[in-house]
Amino acid sequence: LVSSLSLLLGTTITISSNHWMMAWTGLEINTLAIIPLISKSHHPRAIEATIKYFLVQAAASTLVLFSSMTNAWSTGQWDITQLHHPTSSLLLTTAIAMKLGLVPFHFWFPEVLQGSSMATALLLSTMMKFPPITILFLTSNSLNSTLLVTMAIASAALGGWMGLNQTQTRKILAFSSISHLGWMTIIIIYNPKLTLLTFYLYSVLTATVFLTLNTTNTLKLSTMMTSWTKTPALNTTLMLTLLSLAGLPPLTGFLPKWLIIQELTKQEMTMAAITIAMLSLLGLFFYLRLAYYSTITLPPNSTNHMKQWHTNKPASTSIA
Q1: Got the DSSP string for the chain?
Q2: Tally of CB atoms within 10 A around 233
Q3: SS3 sequence, 48-117?
Q4: What is the spatial distance between Cα 136 and Cα 148, in angstroms, rounded to a whole number?
Q5: For helices 118-125 and 20-38, what crossing angle results, to 10°?
Q6: From the centroid of its chain, how far is CA 75?
Q7: Residue 262 confidence class, pLDDT cut points 50, 70, 90
């Protein structure tokens, strides 16, 4: 309960603050609140994930503080929106990329998610990304566009490539998160509201996937292949949600991608739009594989589960 309240408090402080010190305080409260949740199971893997998470977040918070102090030193301003010093801007972009898990600071994210429970992984993928994205939103008018676009395209590429050969559902969702962050950061300078729209839709869809996998207790693809025997209706919903995350046209997940491509074309960044659209096909491949596993493909061996939606008929007596 204390951790949950602290998470809400940290997020609220960061997203509602104008002063750098308050924003930094909120980020620190968030980090300290999520640590007990990651390490709750006392498994060596969970402890390793906790240490990795803490070290990365502590380093990123230090950079945020250093960036704001440098900016205050040169401009005399502690206001978040007044980030005019170029070195401060660069340092802040690096710090937020570390906090979010953007390429090339992405290494910790899949490992931490793999060491966490499904509920904690959901928090790390959605709620914990909200404060850093808010800081990017507030400072978007003074960020380095070339650096952000490069990191965004690299994130979309790596998220797609690395997701292809994973069998653990949490790692697949971690790389899915990295590629979605690519879509969010490529547009943040030109149309920050689109970034927020993408983030909100991504959060809702990811929450649906994580909660479904948590309900069916699906940690690996092999388990997913048999979960349709337990909850067929839930698995159908999961398939639609996964296809929406992939960004297939009739579904909701297509909307932010369409708008982002449109905005990039308006900004005469046609090559960037084409590149990121092509890279999303990599993500589509593993989402389709997940969707197949959840509903369409039957496992090669017969399942040991009773098909729970069948009515129990009395065994017919054989006539000799």
Answers
A1: -HHHHHHHHHHHHHHT--BHHHHHHHHHHHHHHHHHHHGGG--HHHHHHHHHHHHHHHHHHHHHHHHHHHHHHHH---BTT----HHHHHHHHHHHHHHHT-TTS-THHHHHHHTS-HHHHHHHHTGGGHHHHHHHHHTGGGS-HHHHHHHHHHHHHHHHHHHTT--BHHHHHHHHHHHHHHHHHHHTTT-HHHHHHHHHHHHHHHHHHHHHHHHHT--BHHHHHHHTTT-HHHHHHHHHHHHHHHT-TTSTTHHHHHHHHHHHHHTT-HHHHHHHHHHHHHHHHHHHHHHIIIIIPPPSS--SS--TTS--PPPPPPP-
A2: 9
A3: HHHHHHHHHHHHHHHHHHHHHHHHHHHHCCCECCCCCCHHHHHHHHHHHHHHHCCCCCCCHHHHHHHCCC
A4: 11
A5: 160
A6: 34
A7: very high
What pLDDT was estimated at residue 310?
Answer: 52
Closest CA to 129 of 255, 252, 34: 34
Handedness of CA 94, 99, 103, 104 (dihedral sign): positive
Say how far apart CA 161 and CA 152 lie, in whole Å. 14
Two structure tokens written together for 262: 């449109």
Task: Name the pTM for this structure.
Answer: 0.89
Please state, in angstroms and rounded to a whole number, the distance separating the CA atoms of residues 230 and 212.
12
Whether the pLDDT of residue 316 is over 60: the answer is no
Give the CA angle between residues 146, 149, 153 to the nearest 5°.
140
Q: Looking up tokens 């309960």, which residue turns up?
A: 1
pLDDT tens for residues 173-196?
999 999 999 999 999 999 999 999
